[in-house]
Amino acid sequence: MSELILDRLRKEYGSFVAVDDVSLRVEEGELVALLGPSGCGKTTTLRMIAGFIEPTAGRITIGGRDVTWEPPYRRDTGMVFQSYALFPHMTVAQNVAFGLEMRKVPRAEAETRVRQALDLVRLGHLAERLPRQLSGGQQQRVALARALVVNPGVFLLDEPLSNLDAKLRLEVRVEIRELQKRLGLTTVFVTHDQEEALTLADRLVVMDHGVVQQVGTPEELYESPANLFVAGFIGRSNVLRGRLAERGRFISKGGLALAVPADGMAPGEAALALRPERIVVAPGASDGGVVGRVALVTYLGAATEYRVTLDGGETITASVPTPRPGDPLKQVAAGDAVTLTWPAESCRLLAPGPGATPDEGGL
Amino acid sequence: MATATAIGARPGGQRAEGFSLGPFLLVPASLLVVAFLAAPLLVLFRYSFNRYSPREFMVDAFTLENYARFFTDAYFIGVLATTVQVAAVCTLVSLLFAYPLAYLMARTESRWKSALVIAVVFPLMVGNVVRAAGWMAVLGNEGIVNHLMLSIGLISRPVRLMYTPFAVYVGIIAVVLPYMILTLQSVIEGIGREVEEAAANLGAGPMTTFRRVLLPLSLPGVIAGGTLVFILCMNAYATPVLLGGPQFKMMAPALYDQFTRTTNWPFGAALAFILMTSTLLLTIVGTTVLSRRMHHRKLEAAPR
To answer: Which residues of chain A form CATH 3.40.50.300?
Structure first.
């Protein structure tokens, strides 16, 4: 296992910049998820690490060895492809043994390691099957075993769960995490599914338009998004645009004056991000909160969402635990007046750039 | 996934029953085949048992003497041997030439891809005779090749290129190459690029990836292209006549001679059936050997 370093990695296709100076350090045994919408450059970055795409500029180091210009077969990465890419003309055992054969591992040792790898993914009994005789989940685990059996310096996963159904996805997700922890694998995981990234990764790299937007632990990204894109992409956020009148006082375009944390930004144009689940909804209009009318009530089981139109025309969505029977909130329906309150410190002031959510304001 | 379902299908699985138009759609094509292919062949087959008489040309009979004549005449055995040799060499060479190009065409993402396909298909729009005439201009004593070699002083007198086996090989390979390329290309395109990437990722260099992954997976294309091209080569007519000259004899021109020049229809018919049968046999032998190899791998891989 070894440390992976990307140093100002860049890929241009003509005038289009697919990956824009990405720098990243993945520690030994760490699982880092590259997360972003399609076309954000995450897959291109992963394929550059594997050696399938030559970077335009920058450096890739695996375990202290500069592999930027090495061909894929001299890189010592183990990749799991989105389509699994199993060799259809070889059995499961032959698929898993392929990498060992290339490394000229003696036959007896190779057989033992293949058996261990297949037992690791609980497929020992299917060793002599052909890939097409397996279910999607089983093929997926063969792909994992094939990549793991060679003890790769870096373990690469390209959307490995996207071809599985929802229930299986959850199972395999847990399995991958357990394996990765147990074997101490330095891992890079590409996904567009933020929930997958949040639950799997030690650290997340959020990308958009080829640029790294923020790197951090799931909690860091959720609690302190660096910009509007991250605020909208990791979890959901209400976004109010306006300006910071003075430190601690934000005035929205709709004329709403709000108390905000006094640290950070200098007065001027700004955007305010607020998580829906930090908002408390009370029936009726009252002082000491933001008053609006309910536009839509959405029942989600454990939680209920209230889409509230404020007097200034802006929209805020609040997500609260579904009220018990007897709670006055239970009676609130579309058209009723409500009061919204939230702790000032849950507001996060951000630079007024473009956001990730198209239906900004109402999420 | 579809295959997986098929394998796991219930033994008592029901098939939708009801009226199907399918068989009726085959009627026009079947009639056409019977009228224009099967019937003439049957007539010709009957002719091959007739007797030839210089005065009456063809006498109704039931004799094997035409076939006997072929197998006892060293000249005609030689013609068949030449034909098989030309066909085998041309098939092999066109396979070697076509594979890299087919691979390139299957894998390229260049916007010139369609131009490349058109360039490969284009020769098919020009008849064999016209192309042979083109080769005459290139390979003749006054042709481009000789002219070039003379002008740079490589040779002092024109080298004879036309009316040699070499000219025939070149001409036939040029004719069959597009068929081989297009067949291989479509098969290689069906093999996911990721499979090759997976091999590279596991430490296989380009040659190993080709030998262990690409070639076994593209074997069906090699078999299909090889069969198609071999049959075309065995039956080549215009190219050997125009580029090989009178001395160079292959089966198709030889049997045509029997029909037109010597007007020996019974023997010509026998030659036609010998050519057809040997083509069929060799094709069957070739494809079985190759499919065995493919099947053998699968047997090795089958549950023990």
So the answer is: 4-223
Length of chain A: 363
Of A49, A103, A86, A54, nearest to A160 by C-alpha is A86
Query: Which strands make up the sheet holding A4-13, listed edge to edge?
Result: A16-26, A4-13, A57-62, A65-66
Q: Does A267 touch chain B (CB under 8 A)?
A: no
- Extents of the domains making up chain B: 50-296
Question: CATH for A4-223?
Answer: 3.40.50.300
**pLDDT value for B304:** 38
Residue A258 contacts residue A252 (beta carbons within 8 Å): yes
Which two three-digit tokens encode residue A85? 């890419």
Q: Does A155 touch chain B (CB under 8 A)?
A: no
Q: Which of B201, B209, B291 best tests the A interface by mutation, with the highest count of A CBs <10 A? A: B201
Work out the average pLDDT over B190-213.
95
Classify burial at A289, counting beta carbons within 10 Å of its beta carbon; exposed 0-12, middle 13-18, buried 19 or more: middle
Residue A128 has pLDDT above 50, yes or no: yes
pLDDT score for A127 = 94
Residues of chain A with CATH 2.40.50.140: 228-350
Residue A252 in contact with residue A240, Cβ under 8 Å?
A: yes
Residue A293 tokens read as: 């009318």
Q: Domain A228-350, CATH 2.40.50.140 — does that match?
A: yes
Query: Which residues contact residue A134 at a Cβ distance below 8 angstroms, ignoring those fewer than 6 apart?
Result: A92, A126, A142, B4
Tally the residues of chain B: 304
Between these two residues, A190 and B17, which has the higher pLDDT value?
A190
Write down the CATH number for the domain with range B50-296: 1.10.3720.10
User: Does the predicted interface ipTM exceed a cut of 0.90?
Assistant: no
How much of chain B, in percent, has pLDDT values that exceed 70?
A: 90
Mean pLDDT of the residues in chain B: 88
pLDDT tens per residue across span B61-111: 899 999 999 999 999 999 999 999 999 999 999 999 999 999 999 999 888
Distance CA A321, CA A306 (A): 11
Interface of B with A (CB under 8 A): 1, 3-4, 7, 192, 194-195, 197-205, 208, 212-213, 216-217, 297-298, 301-304
Residue A317 tokens read as 């969505």
pLDDT tops 70 at residue B5: no
User: Is any Cβ of chain B less than 8 angstroms from the Cβ of A168?
Assistant: no
What type of residue sits at position A169? R
Q: Which helix (H) or strand (E) holds A12?
A: strand A4-13
A73 touches chain B (CB under 8 A): yes
Report d(CA A219, CA B92) in Å as an integer: 63
Write down the residue that tokens 């939230």 correspond to. A342
DSSP per-residue letters across A137-201: HHHHHHHHHHHHTT--SEEEEESTTTTS-HHHHHHHHHHHHHHHHHHT--EEEEES-HHHHHHH-
- Cross-chain Cβ contact A83/B194 below 8 Å: yes
Contact between residue A104 and residue B210 where contact means Cβ atoms under 8 Å apart:
no
Element (H, E) at B180: helix B165-189
d(CA B246, CA B248): 6
A21 torsion bin: left (phi>0), alpha (psi -120 to 50), beta (else): left
Res B23: pLDDT:
80
Quote the Cα angle for A274-A280-A283, to 5°. Answer: 130
Contact residues on chain A for B302, CB-CB shorter than 8 A: 128
Amino acid at B293: R
